[in-house]
């Protein structure tokens, strides 16, 4: 089928053609960026925390002085371990998706900001915490008994630590991190092992590459490590165990205050932390569906209008030998050309919209593969939308069409 007659027909309907092309361009820009945002949010929601979430809960208390930390820890550990079904209780300062307690900048030199690695989360854990978390060691060794030391400030001096694989790849790309040293101001750390995954407390606060920049630091209970307890139980028993643990605090340590909001299972903390992301995904999917629906209706409306206006022309073509397939292909090709023009403009708009989102919301650059995906979706949508009117046009009897005014 020749394209020139179709282009000539479209030039006679410039305004309608331009409006549909602009609608498709807007749909392309919104579709590409909305799908990218959905993928970004979905990947963040599905982040591997690295811990055994189904078997873990956290219980937090406050309202006591630093001088009481050792006594409170002793009473809480002894009392909580006596709950039926409790597999382990240990000290920790923060867990994935809970309150952040240990973010700080680190560098390769003491007190230097010139050789900075980045801001990381320090996960302080007492004896038994590593095992309770269920972390997977991929390189090096686990903390030994003499690696657990008292914290003078927020961490022990010359601490022997584990780092996440993501942090190791960032800080020492292409090198083994074992034995590497880094500093947080004047505090010195040495890497003894690498864990596969360990998410930050607040992944949203950092870029996509930094959501697992974490350091697991063995620390003796007391001082800065007090009041937050990691509970481990069989997943089926965990809700009951946590409920009994919360109720038991008043008897175990009546002089402390239970943090109701943050004393929950890791699964509950995750669900609450990503609640807004799920809402955003639903909204974006709604926007995508609405935009595609409006675009499809616009194509159907325009094609139906043109079929009604061209009934006489269609009849003449049928009378001189055009088949139903020829009429069908004519409208499909016409729609393809309009959609293609809209897609070309839409790709430019999609890139511009992404630049705006990057500047306002610190989003990463839109990957180029979203553009051809958006084009394929809109081409397919256009062909489906025009199919009904095109089939009606192809079904017009030649005799009836030639008799119409």
From TrEMBL:
Q: Does the keyword Protein transport apply?
A: no
The record places domain ABC3 transporter permease C-terminal at 287-397
Q: What is this protein called?
A: ABC transporter permease
Q: Where in the cell is it found?
A: Cell membrane
Main location (coarse class): membrane
Q: Which InterPro entries match?
A: ABC3_permease_C (IPR003838), Macrolide_Exporter_MacB (IPR050250)
Q: How does it sit in the membrane?
A: Multi-pass membrane protein
Q: Which family does it belong to?
A: Belongs to the ABC-4 integral membrane protein family.
Question: Taxonomy-wise, where does this protein's organism fall, top ranks first?
Answer: Bacteria, Pseudomonadati, Pseudomonadota, Gammaproteobacteria, Lysobacterales
**Top-level taxon of the source organism:** Bacteria
Is Signal set as a keyword in this record?
no
- Transmembrane stretches, start-end: 15-39, 283-307, 336-357, 369-391
UniProt keywords (A-Z) are: Cell membrane, Membrane, Transmembrane, Transmembrane helix
């Amino acid at each position: 089928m020749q394209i020139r007659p179709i282009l000539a027909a479209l030039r006679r309907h410039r305004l309608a053609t331009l409006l549909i092309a602009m609608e498709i361009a807007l749909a392309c820009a919104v579709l590409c960026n909305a799908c990218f945002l959905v993928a970004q949010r979905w990947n963040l929601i599905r982040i591997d925390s690295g811990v055994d979430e189904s078997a873990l809960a956290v219980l937090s208390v406050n309202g006591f002085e630093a001088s009481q930390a050792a006594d409170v820890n002793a009473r809480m550990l002894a009392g909580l371990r006596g709950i039926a079904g409790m597999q382990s209780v240990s000290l920790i300062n923060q867990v994935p998706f809970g309150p952040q307690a240990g973010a700080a900048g680190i560098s390769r030199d003491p007190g230097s900001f010139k050789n900075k690695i980045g801001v990381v989360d320090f996960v302080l854990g007492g004896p038994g915490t590593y095992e309770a978390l269920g972390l997977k060691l991929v390189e090096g060794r686990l903390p030994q008994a003499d690696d657990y030391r008292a914290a003078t400030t927020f961490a022990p001096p010359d601490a022997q630590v584990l780092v996440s694989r993501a942090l190791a790849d960032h800080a020492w790309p292409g090198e083994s991190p074992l034995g590497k040293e880094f500093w947080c101001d004047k505090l010195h750390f040495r890497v003894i092992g690498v864990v596969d995954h360990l998410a930050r407390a607040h992944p949203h606060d950092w870029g996509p590459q930094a959501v697992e920049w974490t350091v697991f630091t063995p620390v003796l209970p007391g001082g800065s490590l007090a009041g937050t307890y990691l509970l481990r139980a069989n997943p089926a028993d965990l809700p009951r165990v946590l409920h009994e643990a919360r109720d038991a605090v008043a008897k175990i340590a009546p002089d402390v205050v239970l943090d109701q909001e943050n004393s929950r299972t890791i699964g509950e903390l995750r669900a609450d932390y990503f609640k807004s992301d799920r809402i955003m995904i639903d909204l974006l999917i709604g926007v995508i569906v609405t935009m595609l629906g409006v675009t499809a209706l616009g194509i159907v409306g325009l094609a139906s209008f043109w079929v009604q206006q061209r009934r006489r022309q269609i009849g003449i073509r049928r009378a001189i030998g055009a088949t139903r397939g020829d009429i069908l292909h004519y409208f499909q090709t016409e729609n393809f050309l309009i959609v293609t023009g809209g897609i070309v403009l839409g790709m430019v708009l999609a890139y511009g919209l992404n630049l705006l989102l990057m500047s306002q919301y610190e989003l990463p650059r839109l990957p180029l593969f979203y553009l051809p995906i958006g084009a394929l979706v809109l081409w397919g949508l256009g062909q489906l939308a025009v199919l009904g009117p095109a089939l009606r046009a192809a079904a017009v009897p030649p005799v009836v069409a030639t008799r119409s005014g």
